[in-house]
Specification:
- With about 290 residues, the protein is an alpha/beta fold.
- It has a single domain, classed as P-loop containing nucleotide triphosphate hydrolases (Rossmann fold, 3-Layer(aba) Sandwich).
- The protein contains 16 helices and five strands.
- The chain starts with 5 loop residues before the first strand and ends with a helix.
Length: about 290
């Protein structure tokens, strides 16, 4: 069976789609379609079997590096069997974990869930009802099972902030970790998978707008300004704001997790210094650094 050489395992809303798109654009790299098969996390997908999963890579050329990128793989406590299933099939895989300032990530996820109609209330209300959204940004908590199962040498930490400020350098670093022997070049394709630009799900609206012939008529007769105005009814036009009390509570919770993450990376991390620290230098996990 053809199986992936690498997997981008998360985190959600941290530029995993952007990274996967950049890797897929390289000669000699094959990324699955769909990009996020969620095979090891979602029970209904896992039930399709190893043959189905292997078939996702059947079109890769001999010698290609092959991989996928599923953020469901680092969504504890939602998908607790992921690591165990990985170990049963992908013993030598290399893993990439992308992180971002945890509160920025959380707000972006809320917007995403709002467009998907998973949540409908204010961000304050939904965080109380759905603590799993907070958990997805507790990076050390998400990573610890992976580090125990695969070891620090097989997991590369990447940060959204540095990927944005030093894209070419970070792509080169990822490719070196994966064992890519070509010459990687970052392609400026704009932001991928930006939640704020999505329209809230509406099956009725989509059925009407995508009816045969209607899309062309609409584009020909309705001015762009009017179409943009109409989209505003289905988009979150202003970024959600956290109250001071909620932000302080989140910072306290995330600082505990970031302290553990910083210990793994050899850098002190807090919500306050997160962006400046992760932008300043590429990082590896401590045991991997000790072997260099």
């Amino acid at each position: 069976m053809r199986l992936p050489d690498f997997v981008v395992i998360g985190a959600m809303k941290c530029a995993t789609t952007t990274l996967a798109t950049q890797l897929a654009a390289l000669d000699g790299v094959f990324v699955s379609d769909p990009k996020e098969p969620n095979f090891f996390s979602d029970d209904d997908v896992y039930a399709r079997g190893e043959g189905w999963y292997s078939s996702l890579y059947a079109d890769a050329a001999a010698g290609d590096l092959v991989g996928e990128a599923s953020t469901h793989y680092t969504k504890l406590p939602t998908y607790p069997q992921t690591v165990e299933r990985f170990r049963g099939l992908l013993k030598d895989v290399k893993l990439v974990y992308v992180m971002r300032h945890p509160i920025d990530r959380l707000v972006s996820q809320y917007v995403h869930e709002w467009t998907q109609r998973v949540v409908t209330g204010s961000i304050e209300e939904e965080l109380e009802r759905n603590p799993w959204m907070i958990d997805y940004g507790r990076y050390s908590m998400q990573l610890e099972p992976w580090l125990e199962a695969f070891g620090a040498d097989r997991i590369l930490p990447v940060f959204n902030e540095r990927l944005r400020s030093q894209p070419q350098q970070e792509l080169e670093r990822v490719c070196a970790f994966l064992g890519y022997t070509g010459v990687p070049a970052w392609v400026d394709a704009g932001d991928q998978n930006v939640s704020a630009q999505r329209l809230k799900k509406s099956p009725v609206r989509d059925a009407v707008l995508n009816a045969p012939g209607l899309k062309q008529i609409r584009r020909g007769l309705v001015p762009q300004g009017v179409r943009d105005w109409a989209k505003g009814f289905w988009q979150m036009t202003s970024r959600p704001e956290l109250s001071d009390a909620t932000r302080q509570r989140l910072e306290s919770l995330y600082n505990e997790d970031l302290e553990r993450l910083g210990a793994l990376l050899g850098h002190g991390l807090t919500c306050e210094n997160f962006k400046s620290v992760v932008e300043s230098t590429p990082m590896t996990f401590s045991s991997a650094r000790e072997r260099v």
